[in-house]
Amino acid sequence: MQTTAQSTNRYAITIIGILFFIFGFVTWLNGSLIQFLKLVCELASDTQAFFVTSAFYMAYFFLAIPSSFILKKTGFKNGMALGLLIIAAGCLVFIPAANSRSFGLFLTGLFVQGMGLTILQTASNPYISIIGPIESAATRISILGICNKAAGILSPLIIGALVLKNATNIEEQVKLTTDIATKENLLNELAGRVITPYIIMAVILVLLAILLSLSKLPEIKETAETDAANNLITGNKTSVFQFPHLLLGVLCLFLYVGVEVMAGDAIGTYGKSMGMPLDETKYFTTFTLVAMLTGYVVGIFTIPKYISQQKALLISAITGVVFTIMVFLTSGYISIGFIALLGLSNALMWPAIFPLAIAGLGKFTKIGAAFLIMGIAGGALLPLLYATLKDSNGTFQLSNKLSFLICMLPCYLYIIYYSAKGYKR
Fold it and tell me: pTM for this one?
């Protein structure tokens, strides 16, 4: 019986692993898109360009709770298939966006992609947490994180090679040309490069949705026994708001996603602000994701055998503080290297925060998971705050380095608090 359960779990982890690969590939395109759209759509500042992350991640805030109701109707498997189809629709929006070079349409496509990913995340994270022992949930999520970050490593390289090829040369030509028609032709040609990759992505996503709906992914259903156990766990609690460790965990995850997106998506903009060429900065996201991938491998072999989920989160947050300070104290490629190392600090945070925050929620697990998914909106606001501080004029104008420090350091300090005390029930 145990062998059958283990086989079922391995099958489920494999299916969810494929989905996490898709999460990573779509999500980590944003770092390249920020720089691409700033050039193609002739945006005036980095603040405008960072609406790329805002449009994408705000979908999680608006759709997380509705997603939990959708999943009640569809079940986990069909809900995930629906999420894939919605992401495919978002990819197809890029076709008219590229043809018209409309920044608004690009943002719409990103928001729709975020909608689909919200449904996938709302289903897959609690699913993988409760399909096995909660004490080893971080290990399972770390395995899926490898799938996610492996895709993330590949996506900037692929998009950089296909879409941003000779980007520095094109950028210089656009700046120097005085002929409007020549400039428009250059930008139209560059914008058109995204159409084929996004059509291919849409086709693959539709095929995966069909295969997923036909798969034998086990459905987790609550029975009368489960309800009784949930009531025993939660006692006389009547609301999800009666679990402080969850609410503090939502804020913790909000700040964590913010620093993760800063380290992954803002690293290219940080380098550009120091005068580094676009042909180099378009690949910087990959450096951060290699560091994150390393962190996930460490997590698989150490949690929970050698250290607990809570201890891994504490160590990760402390190293985040150290690396952030070093980013501020150094410059040039050394500073970029420390931003990339933040990927190592961030790797084990999601795998640790999520199970710590939903532990003991019982019948409130689904709505608690939806609240945590809402916390992903941190990726929408923190990078935008960084760009605003950096680009602002007048009294509140700050340097690139100081803006980065102000956005990152308080987040890691709060994560230290949560890992030491806030997670306790």
Answer: 0.84
